[in-house]
Design goal:
Shape of chain B: elongated
Helix content of chain A: 25-40%
Strand content of chain B: 15-25%
Number of domains of chain B: 2
Radius of gyration of chain B: 19 Å
CATH topology of the largest domain in chain B: Ubiquitin-like (UB roll)
Order of helices and strands of chain B: HEEEHEEEE
CATH class of chain A: Alpha Beta
CATH superfamily of the largest domain in chain B: Beta-grasp domain
Strand order of the largest sheet of chain B: 2-1-7-4-5
CATH class of the largest domain in chain B: Alpha Beta
Strand content of chain A: 15-25%
Number of strands of chain B: 7
CATH architecture of chain A: 3-Layer(aba) Sandwich
Number of domains of chain A: 1
CATH topology of chain A: Rossmann fold
Oligomer: heterodimer
Largest interface: A-B, 36 and 18 residues
């Protein structure tokens, strides 16, 4: 049988049946930036796609490597592709009507303000702790209209229930176990990375719905 | 002779009592401030950092970061619900009643 892509209306109706039309409309109107498309960011992007978030701003400078496949939402055929291109392919397979804004750049102090100027919800999904600190501080110090959902600590095989969502300020949420650093002998593994990503994705969906408690 | 033997024991007793009284004062201050009726007792100040109570009326953030070995380039500091700009880390002085959360980012994502 020939494959026919469902229409945007068909997908929207299916999502509305699950979420209610009102919630779905909010998701569809929302825009979320995801900074970093590794274990956290690629999982978050896929989860927000499945939920029907209308616009995703995806930022990463890196290419997919074989070592990423253990936990990131890419497949072998995408090794060596830019992550922004590879995630766009994956997203289009799930919902081709999501509007994607892809920036294949490295975020730093100089481009941060301009890069996120149209974003109100920014998901910090970097792996480097210095980059995490730079993004969180850079955005929260200079803007009072942006909320950042960040992550810290999700390596290894420690207990699932240690991963939590904390509200640090009204505009700064932090997910993770806060301590499990990725290092030799305690690497990043799919389940805990996905758990942390799910905490971030759910915090974002709740923000879209104005549910600000944790 | 007896007196010299007694002195260390006496000193220990006095120190213990002082510490006990001081701790009681601190818990009174904490309870009082939670009811927002504040009793100020000289010498009993409280700064809370990541849930730990520090009995000091002033504390330089820079000195605290140095004493804990936290790297200013991989943290975020929240004081009483607001993010402290990085440019203020060196000059910031924590004071009585401040509630501080220091997020120490670890690698992985």
């Amino acid at each position: 049988m020939e494959y026919v892509t469902p229409t945007e209306q068909e997908i929207d109706e299916e999502l509305s049946r699950r979420h209610t039309a009102e919630v779905q409309q909010r998701f569809k109107n929302a825009r979320v930036a995801i900074a970093g498309l590794g274990g956290l960011g690629s999982n978050i992007a896929i989860m927000l796609t499945r939920a029907g978030v209308g616009t995703l701003h995806l930022i990463d400078f890196d290419r997919v490597e074989l070592s990423n496949i253990n936990r990131q939402q890419y497949s072998l055929k995408e090794v060596n592709m830019y992550k922004t291109d590879a995630i766009a392919l994956e997203i289009q397979r799930i919902n081709p009507y999501i509007r994607l804004i892809c920036d294949c750049v490295k975020v730093d102090e100089n481009n941060l303000a301009e890069l996120f100027s149209d974003d109100k919800i920014v998901c910090e999904a970097f792996d480097n702790p210095y980059a995490k600190s730079m993004l969180v501080n850079g955005l929260l110090e200079s803007r009072d209209d942006v909320t950042v959902v960040s992550a810290s600590g999700m390596a290894g095989f420690d207990k699932s229930n240690l991963i939590t969502t904390k509200k640090i300020t009204d505009r700064f949420y932090l997910c993770g176990d806060m301590t499990s650093e990725a290092q030799n002998g305690n690497g990043l593994v799919a389940p805990r990375v996905a758990l942390c990503a799910a905490h971030q994705a759910n915090a974002i969906l709740r923000l879209i719905l104005d549910k600000k408690d944790v | 002779m007896i007196l010299t033997k007694c002195v260390p024991a006496l000193r220990f007793f006095i120190l213990k009592t002082v510490r006990k009284v001081r701790n009681q004062f601190v818990s009174i201050t904490a309870r009082a401030s939670s009811r927002s009726t504040r009793i100020l007792l000289e010498g009993c100040f409280l700064i809370t950092i990541n849930g730990n109570r520090i009995e000091q009326n002033k504390l330089s953030l820079k000195e605290y970061l140095e004493s804990t070995g936290l790297n200013p380039k991989r943290i975020a500091v929240e004081i009483n619900g607001e993010i402290l700009p990085k440019s203020e880390y060196d000059s910031s002085v924590l004071k009585d009643g401040d509630k501080v959360e220091i997020v120490n980012f670890v690698g992985g994502g």
